[in-house]
Amino acid sequence: MSHLAAMRCGSANLASLTGPKFTLLGASHKTAQTVLSIPSPLKGFCSSGAAKTSSRSLSTQIRAVRHLEGSLIKTQNLRFAVVVARFNEFVTRRLLEGALDTFKKYAVNEEDIDVVWVPGSFEIGIVAEKLGKSGKYHAVLCIGAVIRGDTSHYDAVVNSAASGVLSAGLNSGVPCVFGVLTCDDMDQAVNRAGGKAGNKGSEAALTAIEMASLFQHHLSQL
Ligand SMILES: Nc1c(NC[C@H](O)[C@H](O)[C@H](O)CO)[nH]c(=O)[nH]c1=O
Ligand SMILES: CC(=O)[C@@H](O)COP(=O)(O)O
């Protein structure tokens, strides 16, 4: 069912709530129980001819809003690729360590993680896209550290890295997570790679787990 169809169906339900038979306040206890006991999140939510739906099926269509969210617990069968830029390796290695620690903490199997090194952040996108399209991974985590120099080179690398990771995700359909630091100086970078401001590699790994789980457990049948 498309989102549009779901929305149409949703408005049909809303309209029915104002009708004589289906006012919310007038709903019997029995009806409320019926609503709560609908088993599958998708099955029976919307039939093709919403306008022609019978009174009986309408009562089973009034239901709570569904919230779909990735789990940080069911991680055992999730596979990840990590693309890491070697440029500013002093920083990126620490980001990678943070990411691997987090994967371990959340029970991702070591053999389900592949780490791919690239020269710099500019090169991350093309590799992430290839890995995403391989069908071998549930998410691709991209790690790099871009630090401002004297010229506009910084902006070119930052923009390319961000749009490269974004495109990789959109083109492959596999979540590609942006764990690339964009810093004015080395201090800012070190602080975010296990220093005063935490470890952004670790945070990005958590995002990768949540997105992998969301896709695997909720979005794969759409
Ligand atoms: N200056 C930084 C770079 N520059 C290198 C580029 O990423 C790229 O490898 C080169 O232009 C060849 O295509 N990379 C970083 O990751 N961080 C930097 O601060
Ligand atoms: C972000 C960079 O690529 C950086 O190393 C470039 O430094 P510069 O602008 O001084 O050439």
UniProtKB/TrEMBL annotation:
One function term, GO molecular function aspect: 6,7-dimethyl-8-ribityllumazine synthase activity
Metabolic or biological pathway: Cofactor biosynthesis; riboflavin biosynthesis; riboflavin from 2-hydroxy-3-oxobutyl phosphate and 5-amino-6-(D-ribitylamino)uracil: step 1/2
Q: Which domain of life is it from?
A: Eukaryota
GO BP term (any one): riboflavin biosynthetic process
An example GO CC term for this entry is:
riboflavin synthase complex
InterPro entries per record: LS (IPR034964), LS/RS (IPR002180), LS/RS_sf (IPR036467)
UniProt entry keywords in alphabetical sequence: Riboflavin biosynthesis, Transferase
Question: What class does this enzyme belong to in the EC scheme?
Answer: transferase
Transmembrane domains' residue ranges: none
Asked if Transferase is a keyword of the record, the answer is: yes
Q: Which reaction does it catalyse?
A: (2S)-2-hydroxy-3-oxobutyl phosphate + 5-amino-6-(D-ribitylamino)uracil = 6,7-dimethyl-8-(1-D-ribityl)lumazine + phosphate + 2 H2O + H(+)
- Keyword rRNA-binding listed? The answer is no
Known EC number(s)? 2.5.1.78
Q: Which Pfam families match?
A: DMRL_synthase
Q: What family is reported?
A: Belongs to the DMRL synthase family.
Entry function: Catalyzes the formation of 6,7-dimethyl-8-ribityllumazine by condensation of 5-amino-6-(D-ribitylamino)uracil with 3,4-dihydroxy-2-butanone 4-phosphate. This is the penultimate step in the biosynthesis of riboflavin.
Q: What subunit structure does UniProt give?
A: Oligomer forming an icosahedral capsid.
The entry's protein name is 6,7-dimethyl-8-ribityllumazine synthase
The root-end lineage is: Eukaryota, Viridiplantae, Streptophyta, Embryophyta, Tracheophyta
